[in-house]
Design goal:
It contains nine helices and no strands. It has about 300 residues and is an all-alpha fold. The longest helix has about 40 residues. Helix content is about 75%, strand content about 0%. Helix 6 runs antiparallel to helix 7.
Length: about 300
């Protein structure tokens, strides 16, 4: 009996390790990126350029406004990134086994990324909704503000006031956006690591930084249109007759393109890219460092 406990822990840890590492790296990256994410949401809500939004926020709401919604952001990473990075690692490991240990072709990595993104977004959608609402709250008229104090209170009030299923409002565009982002992020990172090591002969640090940069760019380029639609759906409110401006994500995309052209979906792209790419880069860098620490500790 005494010998079975270590065996159990040895068997459990490799299974949960990708999820623990993914969540931890995402949360660390979020602590650094939160102010840029806050500015990006305000730009998408039509409050002006990055410089104007930053100046107005600090002047009217103080520096602390840049970190509004941090609790929801951390909760989102603890759910969404934990699920997506853990799932991607497991899926790719299984696919490599089925491929007799050979590196996966890009399309298989993309499929693993799509699947991991969908699973992660489904798990993290309530926290994502809370994050968007908390960040957008100050832009609303005083009478319409929800004044959530933290992510958990936001989740509780949404469930109590609007029903439990309301926690997944906008889940459709959230999942689609996550699938696009993770296809770009995860597949391109693995492919870039192989290219940097095998073709360029780069060392570990240069490989991680280079592959992370490529991963961040493709994550941003693939996902911004879906992120724009998702943000519009999640922050919309009914008019005096109780009618919402959009019936769904497709309706939102069509109306947006009709009103401002296809490039309207790329509103805030420079700031979005500045926010997404560093977050992706830091997530991979933190993940690499966590794995190195675990290896040195024999975990």
């Amino acid at each position: 009996m005494g010998e079975e406990k270590p065996k159990l822990s040895v068997g459990v840890w490799p299974t949960i390790k990708p999820f623990v590492n993914g969540g931890a790296s995402g949360m660390l990256a979020t602590c650094v990126i939160q102010p840029v994410d806050m500015i990006k949401v305000r730009i998408q809500l039509g409050q002006g350029s990055a410089a104007e939004v930053t100046r107005t926020m600090i002047k009217n709401e103080g520096v602390g406004a840049l970190y509004k919604g941090l609790s929801a952001g951390l909760l989102r990473q603890a759910t969404y990134t934990t699920a997506r990075l853990g799932t991607f690692k497991i899926l790719t490991n299984k696919a490599i086994e089925a491929n007799d240990g050979k590196p996966l072709p890009l399309y298989q990595k993309a499929l693993c990324g799509l699947t991991a993104g969908a699973i992660g977004a489904s798990v993290g959608s309530p926290a994502d909704l809370a994050l968007i609402r908390m960040q957008a709250d100050a832009t609303l008229p005083a009478a319409q503000r929800r004044n959530y104090t933290n992510a958990f209170q936001a989740l509780f009030r949404i469930g109590a006031d609007e029903g439990v299923l309301a926690l997944w409002k906008g889940a459709g565009p959230t999942v689609v956006r996550a699938m696009a982002l993770n296809m770009g992020m995860l597949a391109s990172y693995d492919q870039s690591v192989e290219f940097c090591k095998d073709s360029l002969g780069l060392g570990e640090a240069a490989t991680v930084v280079g592959a992370s940069s490529v991963s961040g760019f493709f994550a941003a380029a693939c996902s911004l249109p879906f992120d724009y639609v998702k943000t519009q759906i999640q922050k919309m409110q009914p008019d005096a007759q109780g009618k919402y401006p959009y019936t769904g994500s497709l309706d939102c995309a069509i109306k947006t393109i009709k009103a401002g052209g296809p490039l309207k979906l790329y509103t805030g792209f420079p700031v979005y890219c500045v926010r997404i790419a560093p977050h992706v880069m830091m997530t991979w860098i933190f993940l690499n460092q966590i794995q190195k620490l675990q290896k040195s500790a024999g975990l």
